[in-house]
Design a protein that fits this description.
- The complex is a heterodimer.
- Chain A is mainly alpha-helical.
- In chain A, 70% of the residues lie in helices and 5% in strands.
- Among the domains of chain A are: 300-530, no CATH class; 600-646.
- In chain A, helix 3 (66-91) packs antiparallel against helix 4 (98-116) and helix 8 packs antiparallel against helix 10.
- The longest helix of chain A is centred in the middle third of the chain and has 36 residues, at 316-351.
- In chain B, 70% of the residues lie in helices and 1% in strands.
- The longest helix of chain B is centred in the middle third of the chain and has 32 residues, at 117-148.
- The relative contact order of chain B is 0.16.
- Classes of the chains: A mainly alpha, B mainly alpha.
Chain lengths: 648, 310
């Protein structure tokens, strides 16, 4: 509550004179810390908190329960770090400081409102506020047409989603006799509730950027400033996941959610694979990260679908495990993606570009940023013992238990989903390795990259805090799972993992699987240090620096090294069917190579729809002949039809 | 127990590669080096002064150590002589593949770091091969884990020992898939060639070009260990007989003999394939890996549909 108030205050004070900007950021940071504290307080055993406010005739039920608290954690962590990051970052951006300040405050406040709402009205209010505030942030560089177009598409998708959600809420409120969430929870299962649930999930899928509604995401994220991208990718997309969990597992009871579960698993799997393939071929560092968000949200949706499937078939314990994996991935992805987006902002300020092909060799110029970015990449690539691995491992374990299901067809669906997960994990590693290598390794590919400077200390500190959280949650996933157990117990009456201590997690029993990241890290460190100590003795410590090998042609230049596009070329060839690739040699001498890669969803899905609408409107345009007599005739006709309808 | 297994594994690893090299030489009507040759190479490299490109950062020097430690950790969690291993209670088969990925990522980062043409070329090829091979490995292990309802390696191998020899279609598919993956991951023919130094074709050799001295020795040693890792993994999963269920000297000696026999047989298979198959074009390799992935999926399906045991 306090956090929301502070975020609003941050927005308002940012609207004030320029000297208040600092205060606005401090308030924003404080609101983040408050949300973090509120979430932790509840999950560590505090009582749940409910407040009823009234605004006119609408009662505002706001309730903080374990599920909201889990989503408040990443929100709080990310908001408080971006508040630290934003000040030095924004100093370099010459235009429009004030507007992001206002919109950021309202953006955060409305996200908190959605999380706390226990009534359809405040939920919708927060949902719409979130869309509008983030729209303002996306079009911050409104002088660029690409930015305006991204904003327009984003607004369109967001409002279609909101309309569908409104419809779903209307159906639910009608069925349950009121818009209060408590009434919905008590309502019996019905067909209209099922339809409403499906509609709501569609709306949430649009917000989460799942295939085929993902097209706004790679456009909108890069258009916003980096700390806002971090907020959008790490927190806003998760709000959609929150909506799915809240509705599917808490509020709406249906007879059989089998169809929905299967749809969620398939959509999630498709989003995962397409997202990672798109991420692999992007040239813009923030687009890579945005596409990787599609992948990770797909993963979370798949885990939710799995949980729903298990719950529907009566395996509540396994459902709790899959839900736990989904929520753990939500936390991990939020931290990692925020870290990487902030890293992208740092790189952009150092090199003055988001183009991977103009970076390179930054690790030597910016060692601290490079190390933090590497940590984020490894974490997101699911390399043990970092945090991305823990949640994927838990999801694999949940899928491994599919033998308990009775129905053969469903039982074989889950291994197929696991196959997609395996493919995505491997491709994700390739994608993030390419991202890190293109930016930080090799030699500088442009003049600004050659002269890059390390980022200001506050920006590094913000990233360092996120990185520390990533490492901690990677080494002690048990601590997080102990908190998540409360959610799964509240929703499904089973803990997510049977044994979770700080050091080791055991999803079912010790004979089935267990994972102790700290022990594993200790062994690996001991081996590496022993080897290093054995080899670095006496005379052998010295090494000689030489020119790298370039077939005797003298020192290799930056143009001899591999480019980011070439690094992904073999995999691009393999997955060419999923992309539309245009290669051409530009100038008459053929010395320039142009590569354009687009998402085929545009051609296959959106272009036909757009063509259909355009042709429809061309036909409609024939009515506009410009003759007054004809228009009078139309009016008369309309009047007659109306009269007929009235009398009938 | 754990340091002992780690030491035994690390010391035995080069011998398998030496054995395969010797066999291949004999198949090509050459006398070939002794199986101890990899050991001598390592000793020579360790004695040499390491040379580092001046464009390289600290990652280049750290990568071999990470690679070595990650591979060794993954290997030491395998049931080598006894079914129970010290690390079985803290890792499982999925974590092991994660550590193999870590080793590979370290290798690729190190090869991309100096910004040379060869390192990048090799890394880009390896990126494709590994991204297509890893899902197959994961999936194959996943379907074996489903058989035992456990991904804990000790339990998994114990279950396979208890149920005894049984012809399962899923195992056949998975074995084929894993054999292909093992070949590709170790840079063997037909996807890559360990003996080539021709720029147009090399993958693994292109990546290690800039390392020298002790760094190169560690990278090569990791390569030897990876081969032994796959050898023991395949032996554990598809022919677990002879593994000791408790650590008495007689049982351990028997287990060691069995393991050597199994690995020698695998070495013969590997040498034969390498002698018979030509190197594949790089863009033919995805076809082979897709086949392996398909086989792994088939294995999983045949397990789910035919061999369901609640």
């Amino acid at each position: 509550m306090l956090a929301m108030g502070l975020a609003m205050a941050a927005g308002l004070s940012a609207a004030g004179p320029r000297s208040w900007e600092r205060l606005a950021l401090q308030l924003l940071g404080a609101s983040g810390l408050c949300s973090l504290a509120a979430g932790l307080w509840l999950l560590l055993g505090g009582p749940s908190d409910a407040v009823v406010m009234t605004l006119g005739v609408i009662p505002w039920h706001l309730i903080l329960d374990p599920l909201s608290a889990v989503f408040l954690l990443p929100l709080g962590a990310v908001v408080s770090t971006i508040a630290l990051y934003a000040r030095p970052y924004l100093l370099h951006i010459e235009t429009g400081f004030r507007r992001p300040g206002v919109a950021t405050g309202f953006f955060v406040a409305s996200m908190i409102l959605v999380l706390l709402a226990a009534h359809a009205f405040p939920f919708m209010l927060g949902w719409e506020g979130m869309a509008l505030a983030s729209y303002l942030l996306v079009i911050q560089h409104h002088e660029e047409s690409a930015s305006r177009q991204a904003g327009l598409i984003y607004l369109l998708v967001a409002h279609m989603g909101a309309l569908v959600l409104l419809l779903a809420f209307g159906l639910l409120a009608h069925g349950a006799g009121g818009p209060d969430f408590a009434q919905w929870r008590a309502a019996p299962a019905s067909a209209s509730a099922m339809a409403a649930l499906a509609l709501a999930c569609l709306a949430f899928a649009a917000k989460a950027g799942l295939v085929p509604l993902h097209v706004w995401l790679p456009l909108a994220h890069p258009a916003a400033p980096s700390h806002i991208s971090a907020l959008m990718s790490a927190v806003m997309l998760k709000i959609a996941i929150y909506g799915m969990v809240r509705l599917c597992f808490d509020l709406v009871s249906v007879q059989s959610a089998l169809g929905l579960a299967v749809t969620m698993i398939t959509t999630g799997a498709l989003s995962m694979v397409l997202g990672v393939v798109l991420a692999l071929v992007q040239q813009d560092i923030k687009r890579v990260l945005a596409c990787s968000s599609i992948e990770n949200l797909g993963l979370v949706t798949m885990a939710l679908g799995l949980a729903l499937l298990y719950r529907t078939t009566g395996h509540a314990m396994l459902a709790a495990m899959a839900l736990g994996a989904a929520l753990l991935h939500v936390l991990n992805h939020a931290l990692l993606k925020a870290l990487l987006f902030l890293g992208a902002g740092t790189i952009q300020q150092a090199c003055d570009t988001y183009d991977l092909g103009r970076m390179g060799g930054l690790l030597r110029r910016m060692p601290a940023s490079g190390g933090l970015f590497l940590l984020g990449c490894l974490g997101l690539a699911a390399i043990p013992p970092l945090n991305g691995f823990a949640s994927e491992w838990l999801l694999f374990q949940a899928a491994l238990q599919s033998w308990q299901m009775e129905q053969g067809i469903l039982r074989s669906l889950i291994p197929l989903a696991a196959a997609c997960l395996a493919l995505t994990t491997a491709l994700g590693t390739a994608c993030l390795l390419r991202l890190f290598a293109s930016a930080f390794l090799g030699q500088a590919r442009s003049r600004p990259a050659r002269r890059a400077r390390e980022a200001p200390r506050a920006m590094l500190l913000a990233q360092g805090m996120l990185a520390a959280l990533c490492v901690l949650s990677g080494l002690f996933p048990g601590l997080l799972l102990m908190m998540l157990n409360q959610v799964t117990v509240a929703l499904l009456h089973h803990p997510a993992v049977q044994t979770a201590s700080a050091l080791i997690i055991t999803p079912v029993t010790a004979t089935q699987a267990s994972y102790a990241p700290l022990a594993v890290l200790a062994v690996i460190m001991i081996i590496a240090l022993c080897t290093a100590a054995l080899l670095h003795t006496r005379k052998r410590a010295a090494l000689r620096r030489v020119q790298p090998w370039a077939c005797g042609l003298g020192p290799p230049t930056a143009r001899m090294q591999i480019t980011p596009a070439a690094l992904a070329m073999p995999l691009r060839q393999v997955f060419a069917g999923l992309l539309s690739i245009h290669e051409r040699l530009g100038s008459p001498q053929g010395r320039r190579y142009h590569l354009e890669i687009a998402d085929r969803t545009w051609d296959l899905l959106y272009a036909p729809v757009a063509r259909f609408v355009m042709s429809l409107s061309r036909h409609a345009a024939r009515l506009q002949s410009g003759r007054v007599r004809l228009y009078l005739g139309f009016s008369l006709g309309t009047l007659l039809v109306l009269l007929w309808v009235m009398s009938w | 127990m754990l340091p002992l297994q780690i030491l035994l594994f690390a010391l035995a690893a080069p011998l398998l590669n030496g054995w395969v090299d010797m066999l291949r030489a004999r198949l090509q009507n050459r006398r070939g080096p002794s199986p101890l040759q990899p050991w001598r190479n390592l000793r020579r490299l360790f004695a040499k002064e390491p040379v580092v490109p001046h464009t390289a950062s600290w990652l280049f020097r750290m990568a071999p150590y990470v690679m070595f430690a990650a591979t060794l950790l993954a290997s030491s969690a395998l049931p080598m002589l006894t079914v129970q291993t010290p690390l079985a209670s803290v890792t499982d088969v999925l974590v092991l593949t994660g550590f193999l990925t870590l080793a590979r990522v370290a290798l690729m980062i190190g090869s991309l770091d100096p910004g040379t043409a060869f390192g990048g070329l090799g890394a880009s090829r390896e990126l494709m091969l590994s991204a297509l091979a890893e899902p197959t490995l994961l999936l194959g292990l996943f379907s074996l884990a489903m058989t035992a309802h456990s991904s804990n390696l000790a339990v998994l191998v114990g279950h396979l020992l208890d149920t005894g020899m049984m012809l399962r279609p899923s195992f056949l598919f998975t074995l084929l898939a894993l054999l292909m993956v093992a070949g590709v991951e170790n840079g063997r023919l037909p996807a890559d060639n360990t003996t080539t130094h021709l720029e147009l074709t090399m993958v693994h050799e292109a990546m290690v070009l800039e390392w020298s001295g002790r760094h190169l020795a560690l990278v090569e040693w990791s390569g030897h260990m990876k081969l032994l890792f796959y050898g023991i993994l395949l032996a554990d999963l598809f022919a677990p007989w002879g593994l000791a269920d408790h650590a008495s000297p007689a049982m351990l000696a028997l287990a060691l003999l069995c393991l050597m026999g199994k690995l020698a047989a695998l070495g013969v298979v590997l040498a034969l394939t390498e002698a018979l198959l030509p190197k594949m074009r790089l863009f033919r390799a995805p076809g082979m890996l897709n086949l392996a992935f398909l086989l792994a999926v088939l294995g999983l399906f045949s397990h789910v549909i035919l061999e369901h045991n609640p």
